[in-house]
Design a protein that fits this description.
This protein has 401 residues and is α/β, with parallel strands linked by helices. The chain has 14 helices and 12 strands. Strand 10, helix 13 and strand 11 form a beta-alpha-beta unit. The longest helix is centred in the C-terminal third of the chain and has 26 residues. The termini are far apart.
Amino acid sequence: MMARDDVLFEDGRLGARLRLDCRHYRGDRPCRAGVQGACPVGCGRYAPQGRRILIIKLGALGDVIRTAAVLPGLKERWPDSHVTWISRPNGARMLKNHPLIDRLLSFDAETLSHVEYERFDLCLSLDKEPGPAALAMRVDTPDSRGIGLSVYGTPTPLNPECEDYFLLGLDDELKFRGNTKSYQRLLYEALGLEYAGERYRLYPSRDAVEAARAFWERVGVTRDDIVVGLNTGAGPVFANKNWPPEKYIELARAITERTDWRVALYGGPDEGELNHRIADACPGVIDTGCRHDEQHFTALMQRGDVIVTGDTMAMHVAIALETPTIVLFGPTCDQEIDLYGLGEKLNAGLDCSPCYRRRCDYSPNCMDALDVERVFEAVGRWIGSRGEQAASVASATGAGA
């Protein structure tokens, strides 16, 4: 039998061995490193893939973003590793350009057909849904960690270290009040890795960054302007995850009437009407639009000096961009969110929160109880903090002397 990494030419003679494990080899197109033709003997651009790691993470887009915190840890432990990440199309678009991901694949039939044929040294399966969990069971690897699927079609932990993380989904008291660890720490421990505060990052494309620059210039935002971003949506899955529209309008008015800061509105397609309403009620507020793709949304958020948001995808984008973030928590667990020292988590502190309920009959509810003035003061603290940091840097470097 011919080995997988050999090439048999038409005359039946084993020809030159192709470097199929090289990071630059693609097979259907010329070499990424610019080498033409078959791999030459002693090629100086040869870069073996090393330990092949497969990450399976679909889930909600925010969860995909924060799971990228595992990448620095993997590269620290296995510097020469080759990382393949399987996600849904929106996740693949969001993680595009990430320097620690060697290959991004969409979760579709084409990907499934060839991933099952490949061999990996390590598979990390991080979703509880049957589809991705089942894929983890079909991967050719000696080391599977995270969550797989039982023969009964039910999720199950694949390694002992994952059991505590897995139980959070089965025990509300443990998840809501017993756990004090961030998602990132839980993730590292579940995968048998040592957590040292690794963070997640995003890298918008050059085109997206340039389009965002042109947008801010068009609406008259200068380099010296302070921009407070308000992300007004938080998804419909859990009740009261969104701050009421009237609160956002009141906050936007407070900012525009009491400061010289600029207010920018962010959101997705579901927030289009709401953001128009806020902009109409508050002259001078900038509506950044609600139909951007993942890369352009991220690039636009880079301009914010402080972001106000609920527990949603935009929160994770802001954290990934290292932007001070004021997060408004209602039905979800704030202890799982790590702001890495940049921002504040505001919670009304009601006894019934967190709850993760799909419906809620309480009035006022947990998000109603979050006062506008409290949010405004938090924004001011972080605007002031950024000014102090800039002054400190200027003083240390002698700028302005």
